[in-house]
Amino acid sequence: MARSSGGGGPRQFVYPPRPTAGIVGRFGIVDLAFFAAALALLWTGFRLIPVSVWWLVGLGVAALLLAAFPFPRVGGRPLTAYLHPVLATVGDRLTRRGVFRGAVFSPSSLAHRMDLPGDLVNYRAVAVPTPDGRSTVGLMVNDREKVACAALLTFGSAMLLEGSTEQGMRLDDWEAVMESFCAQGAGVSRWQLLARTAPDVVNVASRHARDKAVVRSGPAWQATQELIAQAAPAAQRHEVYLIVAFDLRALGDEITSLSEGSSRDEAVGVVVLERLLDLERGITEARIESRGWLRPGQYAALIHTQFDPESLPLHDVLAGQDHDLDPRLAGPSATERAWKSLRHDSAVSRTVWVHELPKRPVTTNWLAPVLQQSGLRRTLSLVAEPLGEVKAQASAERQALRAEGSAAERRKMGRPTTARLRKEAQAALDQDEAQADGDGVFRYHLFLTVTAPDEKTLTRQMLSARRRLIRARCQSIVLYGEQDQAFFAGALPLARGLSPMRGVAGV
Questions:
Q1: Could you tell me if 486 and 477 are in contact, meaning their C-beta atoms sit under 8 angstroms apart?
Q2: Looking at residues 430-458, what average pLDDT do you find?
Q3: Where is this region: Disordered (predicted)?
Q4: 20, 26, 32, 34 alpha-carbon torsion, rounded to 10°
Q5: Arithmetic mean of pLDDT over the chain
Q6: What is the mean pLDDT of residues 173-198?
Q7: Which has more confidence, 85 or 384?
Q8: At what angle do helices 419-436 and 389-412 cross, to 10 degrees?
Q9: Nearest-5° angle of CA 86, CA 90, CA 92?
Q10: Which of 3-17, 205-219, 290-304, 305-319 has the highest mean pLDDT?
């Protein structure tokens, strides 16, 4: 995902810039359509001069406005990028499509599906028995998009306290896991790393001490209990999940061959479970501790607590296998999309897209300012899409051609080539060389979602979180008008991206 260097010292990373070059210069298809419409209006004005010269004046002004519209950039995006969100928001206000009512308010609440808003309506839960028959693995299957997702709960480790050599070895192990996502026959369409931070209402540290302690008496035990009790008001719980989405179209031949004599869901479960167990073995070999793939009820509880954060302590208490949440109750009772936030059940959330990652050399702990922030409910999500050989080659060639084309246009106009265009061209060259060396190529993007009980608190906490991103040398923008899609991509464990994918391609 980034060029690395380090020699004998700590490994450093440099992330490529997000491509800004378009088809012609920095202009994309939508911008060119605006220019074509402006020329059409101007041509129509000249044709109507015999009727009245005012037609030329009026249509000329309209053509000038259309031609000028693609030039301004707001929040790192051209104004044309806001056209779809604005139209969608206006349409939602008129038709009330931005309001969702689920649970008992939904007419399909008793059907064998989860009541989820928007594009998530096609997801359903499938339970796949494990080989030993003692438990099940939960799959979220989307019949329309032909994907099946599974989530793995992992545990962090004190990697930052390790030496540079040990850190490098662990990064190499994780790189091998990432390479497996690009392997032929893997069938992975996207994968997601989701780190959730929330106030520790149920005091997980105290529960862990009671469960793991061998001696529960004496001065040492008493001191431990006092320390945990004093830290409880400021305690934060951290959960990290790896979500993998499999492309059922790519696995279609295997599924079809196993569907004879059994249901399609059983065939999907067998094919996907085989890959999940192999992936879990690779993660274990990379010295990443995990609790296993989530059961359907656990998966449903994870989704539900993202929509209803106040229910998190309840699902902690009912965490036993006999009290798993019914997957049909995974969705929210209500959601309502606003221009810059999404209200859902007991909270309101705002998601930013981290559109620029550090372009200067950074070490492995470059995200520490963001991850170590306490006092808020936050979800940091990295979504990556493995590119096949053909797509990766086309992506590198397209990026190189656009960067070189933009540089040539600037030279024709007598303007010097910018450093950013040179870096974009270099990033395309690095990607091409990495692919030639056999490395996997991904298109990835980073989201940060902050959840608060009200809009005023949300605005304050989001500003604080974005300042932390600046400290980490990242740039972010609020996805105005797309907060529902942004929440689905950044806060939910479904390995979803934005449409179209706007991330950066890299190795």
A1: no
A2: 86
A3: 398-419
A4: 90
A5: 81
A6: 85
A7: 384
A8: 160
A9: 115
A10: 290-304
Helix (H, G, I), strand (E, B) or coil at 367: coil
Q: Which residue has the tokens 């004998």?
A: 8
Contact 427, 399 (CB under 8 A): yes
Are the CB atoms for 328 and 138 separated by under 8 Å? no
Element (H, E) at 207: helix 204-212
Q: pLDDT value at position 299?
A: 93
Whole-number Å distance between alpha carbons of 456 and 461:
9
In this predicted structure, which of 67-71, 148-152, 190-194 has the lowest mean pLDDT?
Answer: 67-71
Q: Which residues contact 454 (CB under 8 A, 6 or more apart)?
A: 348
Q: Which residues are paired to 449 by β-bridges?
A: 351, 379
pTM for this entry: 0.82
The ranges assigned to domains in the chain are: 3-27+70-199+237-506, 28-69
Spell out the SS3 assignment of 284-329: HHCCCCEEEECCHHHHHHHHHHHHCHHHHHHHHHCCCHHHCCCHHH
Q: Are 425 and 400 in contact (CB under 8 A)?
A: yes
Strand partners, 232: none
CA distance 395 to 431: 9
The C-alpha atoms of residue 418 and residue 410 are separated, in whole angstroms, by: 9
* CA proximity to 25, closest of 412, 506, 502, 477: 412
Q: Amino acid identity of 156?
A: G
Question: Read out DSSP for 70-119?
Answer: TS-EETTEEGGGGHHHHHHHHHHHHH-TTEEE-GGGSTTTTSSS----GG
Token pair 């070999």 is found at 285
| Amino acid at the residue 162 | E
Per-residue CA distances from 245 to 147, 153, 155, 378 (Å): 6, 15, 21, 23
